[in-house]
DNA sequence: CGCAAACTTGATGTTGCTCAAGCTAGGTGG
DNA sequence: CCACCTAGCTTGAGCAACATCAAGTTTGCG
C-alpha cells in the first residue's frame, strides 16, 4: 500500500549529474569525478565518526542518513538528516565534528579530501560551490538553534514536519517519515514520548493524519505552519 | 578598579592586519582593502537586520556584537556573540538570515559584497579564506545545537563561561562579561532569572567568583569544565 | 540625590521528563 | 497458516526543572 523506505527516501536524483559539480564546466566535472568513488552503507553503518580524520567529502546520491554529536554520558543531539543531493564532510580542522550514520540504505559519492583540496585552487568555481554548500548548512543550523532554544514541543514537531514536506518536494499532501521517533526526538531536543504525544495531539486537533506511524498527511498546510510558529491558538 | 567595556572587549587585534586577508599575498590584500571601508556602531545599533539585502561583508576590528533571530511573537534566539577578528555577513541567498547589533561600541571593516564577489575568482586563496570562516561558524553552530538541545541549565552556563574564557585568551583567571543577563539567556535558551540563579549556584559551589556582575573569576578551570559536561556530581 | 536599568531572590505554575505499562506490526519458525 | 517474539510506538501517572510573576536590591548616571 505504501512505498517502502528505499524508494521513498531517494526521490529524485538529478539525472544530469552530481550536486558537487552543479554549474561547473564539463572539464571541471571530469577532473572532480576522477578523484571520486561510489560507496554503499546499510542502516546503522557509519560513514565516519566524530573525531575521525576528515579524509573524505561525501555527496549523497540516495537514501538518508543522520548526523549527530554525543555528550560523554551518551546524550545525543542529531544536527541534521541528509538526503539525495546533499554534501557532507567538509571539516575545517581536518577532523570530523559529528558522526554520520545511515538510516535507510545509502549510496554516496566519496571525494578524496587531499585531491579535492588540490583542485580547489585549480578548478574555477569549485571553491564557490563548496562555499555555497557550507553556507546552506550554516543557514539550516541557525534555524535549528532558534527551534531548539525558543520553540515549544508542538512548534518543534510542526516545524519538523514542514521541513520533511519541503524536503520531499512539497507536491502531495502525504509525506514519508524515514526515521524513528527517537531520532526525531534527538533532533528536536525532546524525548521519544513527547514526540509521540505531540503527534497524537496534532492528529486529534485535525492538523495531520497518521495512516501509519511513518506516513503523515497534511490536509491543511497553513494550519501546520501556524502551529510551527506559535501563530495558532 | 576594573577595565571598562571598550578596552576589555577589544583585546588584541593583530597588528599585522585584518583577518579577512590572513595568509594572503600582499597584492591580494591591497585589492581587498580597495573595496573596504571602516565603520563604527554604538551599543544597540544594527549593522543589518534579518531579511535585509546582503550587500556587505563585515570584519570586526573592535568591540562586540550579538547576532540573533526572532520569532513572530518576539521570542529571540541569539546565535552568537562576535568580537575582534571575526567575520560576518556571508549570506548564501543574498539576504541576511539574522540581525547583527552592537553590544559594546564596535568598529568594523566593511567589504562591498559585489566587489568582493568579483575578487573571488581572481584573488588566489580568498575563496579558501571565506570557506574557512564559514566552516568555523558552522562548527560553532553545531556545538551550540548540542548545548541547546541536550544540556541542562547549569551545563549551559558553565559552557558559556568557558567559551568566554577561551575567547579572551585563556590567560588570566578573570574574565569580563560584556553582555547582559538577558542576552546570555537568549543565547542559551533560558530566561534571565534562570541565568542569574545559575550564576549564584556556581558561586555558592565555589566554582566561580563574581566580584561584579560583569566579572567572573575561575579559580579552578577543571571544575568548570566538569560542570559544562555534566561530568561532575 | 533621585531615577532607571539591570540584577537578584522568592513563590508559584507548567511543560516536558522519567518510569512503567500496554499496544501494534513485521518477521520467524513450527 | 498461525503463534510467538521483538522493536518501535503509544499512553498513563508522578515529578523535576525551568518558566512566570512579583518584589526587592544594586549600580551607574543625570
Describe this structure in words.
- The structure is a homodimer of 233-residue chains.
- By secondary structure, chain A is α+β, with helices and mostly antiparallel strands.
- The first copy, chain A, folds into 2 domains: 5-149, Jelly Rolls; 152-229, Arc Repressor Mutant, subunit A, CATH 1.10.10.10.
- Chain A is built from 8 helices and 9 strands.
- Chain A has helices spanning 5-8, 26-33, 113-120, 126-150, 153-167, 181-188, 192-204, 221-229; strands spanning 36-41, 46-48, 56-70, 76-82, 87-88, 99-112, 174-176, 209-212, 215-217.
- In chain A, strands 1, 2, 3, 4, 5 and 6 form a 6-stranded antiparallel beta sheet that branches. The first copy, chain A, has a 3-stranded antiparallel beta sheet with strand order 7-9-8, covered by helices on one side.
- In chain A, α5 crosses α7, α5 packs across α8 (221-229) and α6 crosses α7.
- The longest helix of chain A is centred in the middle third of the chain and has 25 residues, at 126-150.
- Residues 1-16 of chain A have low confidence and may be disordered.
- The A-B interface holds A 69, 71-73, 75-77, 79, 90-93, 97-98, 120-121, 124-125, 127-128, 130-132, 134-139, 141-146, 148-151, 186, 188-189, 229-231 and B 69, 71-73, 75-77, 79, 90-93, 97-98, 120-121, 124-125, 127-128, 130-132, 134-139, 141-146, 148-151, 186, 188-189, 229-231.
- Chain A binds a DNA duplex (30 and 30 nucleotides) through α7.
Amino acid at each position: 500500500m505504501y512505498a517502502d523506505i528505499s524508494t521513498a527516501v531517494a526521490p529524485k536524483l538529478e539525472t544530469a549529474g552530481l550536486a558537487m559539480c552543479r554549474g561547473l564546466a564539463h572539464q571541471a566535472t571530469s577532473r572532480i569525478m576522477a578523484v571520486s568513488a561510489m560507496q554503499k552503507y546499510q542502516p546503522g553503518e557509519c560513514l565516519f565518526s566524530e573525531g575521525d580524520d576528515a579524509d573524505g567529502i561525501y555527496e549523497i546520491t540516495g537514501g538518508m542518513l543522520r548526523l549527530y554529536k554525543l555528550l560523554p554520558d551518551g546524550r545525543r543531539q542529531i544536527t541534521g538528516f541528509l538526503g539525495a543531493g546533499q554534501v557532507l564532510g567538509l571539516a575545517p580542522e581536518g577532523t570530523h565534528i559529528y558522526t554520520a550514520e545511515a538510516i535507510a540504505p545509502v549510496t554516496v559519492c566519496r571525494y578524496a579530501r587531499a585531491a579535492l583540496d588540490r583542485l580547489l585552487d585549480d578548478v574555477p568555481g569549485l571553491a564557490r560551490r563548496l562555499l555555497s554548500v557550507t553556507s546552506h548548512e550554516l543557514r539550516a543550523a541557525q534555524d535549528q538553534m532558534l527551534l531548539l532554544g525558543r520553540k515549544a514541543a508542538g512548534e518543534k514537531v510542526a516545524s519538523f514536519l514542514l521541513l520533511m514536506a519541503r524536503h520531499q518536494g512539497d507536491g502531495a499532501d502525504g509525506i514519508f517519515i524515514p526515521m524513528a521517533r527517537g531520532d526525531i526526538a534527538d533532533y528536536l531536543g525532546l524525548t521519544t514520548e513527547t514526540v509521540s504525544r505531540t503527534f497524537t495531539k496534532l492528529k486529534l486537533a485535525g492538523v495531520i493524519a497518521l495512516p501509519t506511524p511513518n506516513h503523515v498527511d497534511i490536509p491543511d498546510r497553513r494550519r501546520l505552519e501556524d502551529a510551527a510558529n506559535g501563530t495558532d491558538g
